[in-house]
Amino acid sequence: MKTAICNYTEFKIYPARGMKFVRGDSKVFHFINTKAESLFMRKINPRDIRWSTVYRRIYKNTTTDVSAKKKARKTKKVERNIVGASLEVIQQKRNQKPEVKQAAAEQAKREIKEKKKAAVAKKAAQKK
């Protein structure tokens, strides 16, 4: 059930209740009753009206939760296995020192270059 909020009193307006007023500049105002609408039209400040939510908030007569937001849940980090590598292997690689990682990367590059050279040499041998 969608509720609107009265532009004057800040009370909740339930469906099929209240009224709308559209000003000349096309701004829409929602009012809970004709009393609030009348006070708005007479330009009486809602801070001066003792029963309005604005007055009660200023003078701390009640605790109001006009725009209370839900607390967002904190996301939990979950670590899972990747296909072909267990969680222990992933942890081991993550905890390796940078020098070891760099050496392994260079070794892998060398192996790839050697394979390419071998493939090129094999093609050259086939052409002859």
TrEMBL record:
GO cellular-component term (any): cytosolic large ribosomal subunit
PANTHER family in the record: 60S RIBOSOMAL PROTEIN L24, RIBOSOMAL PROTEIN L24
Protein name: Large ribosomal subunit protein eL24-related N-terminal domain-containing protein
Family: Belongs to the eukaryotic ribosomal protein eL24 family.
UniProt-listed GO biological process terms: cytoplasmic translation
Keywords: Ribonucleoprotein, Ribosomal protein
Top-level taxon of the source organism: Eukaryota
Protein species of origin: Dictyostelium purpureum (Slime mold)
Alphabetical list of InterPro entries matching this protein: L24e/L24_sf, Ribosomal_eL24, Ribosomal_eL24-rel_N, Ribosomal_eL24_CS
GO MF, one example: mRNA binding
Pfam family, one: Ribosomal_L24e
Residue ranges of every copy of the Large ribosomal subunit protein eL24-related N-terminal domain listed in the record: 1-64
UniProt key word Zinc-finger: no
